User: Which sequence fits this backbone?
């Protein structure tokens, strides 16, 4: 069976490469002529009933002349981009590029195309997607990857370049739409000029590797009361940020044997003639855990991507409510990242979520262990699950028994929301929500 998949994978790479080359090289008019040529090639052999073969000859020579004329484009250019630090999946990313004509002749009628890094997966990644699709739909479909390509990172628009006199530089506004979170790599820029017939492009490629981090999509969340209340934190906020103890100053008192010297109040000692120390009180504040379920047998599913987007939405919202937030998830390793109240910022948490990958299948127990070890320190827990099975129900039951207030969200595939039953928080029905792919924003608006 594996050699068959190898052959199918090679066929996929070949067809996708040809399709990409065709879309870049042919203009819209050229694609129309190419399609008409294909139709004429199919119908042409029947010379007794139609004269399509005559159209085939004309269309073929039109495209041949267009290709030959494109070889005459030999201009030289230099370019540089001004990219933003971050982009957001699904939102247009606007930036600029400066292009200089290095030749002695003016250039006009140019187009600028981005050279995005090859998004085609390795054989193991492609096979994992196909096996996941086969498991879910009970049939193998090679076209599944083409229709919902989980590897394509961005769609770049073709930009028109104004006339370029010799040795002159122009600034060109560019736009592309990131389709997925993660690192978007751009390999270079292509300056293209269509042939006189406007069918086929000639290229001058400029090697210009750059990258931009694409953050997860975020959804607006309604005002809601987060679970939990103020809770004692040993060492305070600054202890968590490795700056030392964080205790609030309360009063002065006489020195006692064993008091640290750094707590001595030197001005009071100078006035009273005896050592005086500062007395502190430990801090109480709200600390929440944001638990992201990463365990799925479909590594590039919309359910997983939407779960990451929901986690990113909470990460941004909770920061505005001035509480600490621990992001807990398991990838190759267990991971805990704390933000808020002078520690890390929401942007740093979003950068981490931009790179989250699914955890090993069947490893939910490692996430359960990670969360339970943090349960004593948090005042509430927000759980974003990819499924609702016995293992996850038992996990929620354990947190309930520990007295941890919960907000549970289960992300369900389109049309499967009604299959999620048995909410674990019967005494608090507003603490359990099912959000369905395709209407995430509407379902999140129900949170209270």
Assistant:
């Amino acid at each position: 069976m594996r050699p068959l998949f190898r052959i199918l994978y090679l066929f996929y790479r070949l067809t996708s490469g040809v399709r990409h080359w065709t879309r870049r090289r042919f203009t819209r008019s050229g694609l129309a002529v190419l399609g008409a040529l294909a139709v004429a090639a199919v119908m042409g052999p029947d010379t007794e009933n139609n004269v399509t073969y005559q159209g085939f000859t004309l269309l073929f020579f039109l495209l041949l002349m267009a290709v030959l004329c494109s070889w005459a484009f030999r201009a030289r250019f230099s370019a540089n981009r001004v990219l933003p630090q971050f982009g957001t999946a699904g939102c247009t990313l606007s930036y600029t590029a400066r292009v200089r004509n290095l030749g002695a002749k003016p250039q006009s009628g140019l187009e600028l195309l981005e050279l995005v890094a090859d998004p085609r997966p390795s054989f193991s990644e492609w096979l994992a997607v196909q096996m996941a699709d086969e498991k879910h739909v009970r049939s193998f479909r090679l076209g599944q990857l083409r229709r919902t390509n989980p590897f394509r990172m961005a769609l770049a628009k073709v930009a028109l370049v104004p006339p370029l006199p010799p040795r002159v530089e122009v600034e060109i506004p560019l736009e592309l739409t990131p389709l997925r979170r993660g690192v978007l790599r751009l390999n270079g820029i292509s300056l293209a000029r269509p042939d006189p017939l406007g069918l086929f492009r000639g290229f001058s490629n400029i090697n210009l590797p750059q990258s931009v981090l694409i953050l997860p999509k975020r959804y607006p969340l309604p005002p809601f009361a987060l679970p939990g209340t103020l809770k004692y934190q040993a060492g305070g906020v600054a202890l968590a940020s490795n700056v030392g103890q964080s205790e609030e100053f309360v009063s002065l008192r006489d020195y006692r044997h064993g008091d640290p010297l750094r707590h001595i109040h030197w001005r009071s000692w100078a006035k009273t003639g005896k050592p005086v120390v500062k007395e502190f009180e430990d801090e109480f504040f709200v600390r929440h855990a944001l638990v992201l379920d990463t365990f799925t047998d479909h590594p590039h599913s919309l359910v997983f991507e939407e779960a990451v987007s929901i986690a990113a939405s909470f990460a941004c919202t909770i920061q505005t409510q001035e509480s600490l937030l621990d992001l807990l998830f398991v990838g190759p390793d267990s991971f805990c990242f704390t933000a808020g109240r002078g520690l890390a910022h929401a942007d740093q948490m979003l950068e981490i979520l931009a790179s989250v990958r699914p955890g090993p299948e069947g490893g939910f127990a490692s996430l359960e262990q990670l969360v339970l070890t943090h349960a004593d320190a948090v005042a509430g827990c927000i759980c974003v699950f990819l499924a609702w099975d016995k293992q996850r129900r038992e996990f929620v039951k354990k947190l309930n028994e520990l007295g941890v207030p919960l907000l549970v969200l289960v992300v369900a595939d389109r049309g499967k929301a009604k299959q999620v039953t048995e909410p674990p928080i019967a005494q608090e029905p507003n603490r359990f929500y099912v959000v369905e792919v395709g209407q995430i924003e509407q379902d999140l608006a129900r949170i209270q």
Notes: Residues 138-147, 230-246 have pLDDT under 50 and may be disordered. The chain is about 35% helix and 30% strand. Residues 247-282 form one domain.
